[in-house]
Please model this.
Amino acid sequence: MSGIAGIIQNEDVSYPLYLCLHALQHRGQEAAGIATFDGTKSHVYKAPGLLSEVFSAEKLQTLPGKSGVGQVLYSDKSVRGHRENIEPLTFLFKGHSLCISVSASLINRDALRAECEEGGHIFSTTSNAELIAALAAAELIRGTEPQQSLIRALHKLSGAYTGCAVLDGVLYAFRDPLGVKPLCIGSTASGYAVVSESVALDIIGGTLIRDVEAGELLAVTADGFTSVRFAKAEHTAHCIFEYVYTARPDSVIDGVLVYDARRRIGEALGRSAPKADLVSPVPDSGTAFATGYAASSGVPYREGLLKNRYVGRTFIMPAQSLRENAVRMKLNPVRSHVEDKSVVLVDDSIVRGTTSLRIVDMVRDFGAREVHMCIGSTPIIAPCYFGVDLPTRKELIGAERSVDEICEKIHATTLTYIDKESLIQAVGIPEEELCLACGTGEYPCDIPCEQCRKRRVELLG
Model:
């Protein structure tokens, strides 16, 4: 899971790319990078750390060019700490110039890397961006034109991915045939931007045009864009966790305002509400849920927990010890709101259970008489292979425990999850068009040793 952006326009793009990435920091906080193309050569700067730590006004001035791509990184734990994997990556070969940034979790990456190595490619990173670049470069070297080279590379991929690339001065954007990860295109004052979420368009004064469709490749210039479908699936598999947790609530993803989906989830939870004195969100991701809960249940909304705004998202912190220690830094109960009260806490999900345990214990320590936990997702019983940090079944508290056992484990008075049917209805996308694997254990493409309901994909173009 990373946040990506690509811009092409009649003005320099480094500063608007920085702003887009600023709006996408919830998708990655480990590293950041921007690469631009000035019509002759590429310029790149990237480093570990938060976006504001990596870039300054002076750094952005060293990145001239009217097209470019950028990324805020959240990496898979197996390659975490590999500085060479920070994107964008830039390449020069056979008269071609390429800047590329992807958010990709490929099921067949090992087989594809082996294929490239057999052909003589020497990898300098373990990133999927370099793998996709190598596949496209092999086609370019054979004389294939740039757009068709990208299509042939994308035909070989299996998994979830989105990407932006500037190849010979043209911005390309692509999304996997199942549409697992979000990507959209919008207009700027003098061109176009492609970003992971629509909020990144808002921050630069852009206008959302539409989502990039599943299996679609866009070729974008400052004057317009063309579209080609490189693959078509019988059904998509949009990630349910985008609507529950990952995306910002003010984003519109595949036609759904995330805030409204979360509010409807909260309304569904509130229809089976326990008797309580107040409902409080676990901020920030629980806020929209709690407003819906209060509206349907009649339980008064009141903030029982307040957030320290200078602590990042604990879910995407790379180590469990950091997540646990960050809870008290991040959240503090309001004693006068919770003392001697029956409190409903509404949160997006329970993954390992350690964070929920600490939150419940904290609210009890501040005098709450009862703590009822309500969760805006179904129990998470299976890992994610598509970029969300949902770990092995051994680490997942919901994998082998009943709801009552989880409730006891996190010291809650009661524990309520939304049911699958209500969750789907709240999001407003048909079940067959969603990936619900984390809650069902049934995956939309072939994964070794897992139960799959594979979507048939037809390669096009």
The mean pLDDT is 93. Residues 128-141 form the longest helix (14 residues). Residues 256-431 form a domain with the Rossmann fold fold (CATH 3.40.50.2020).
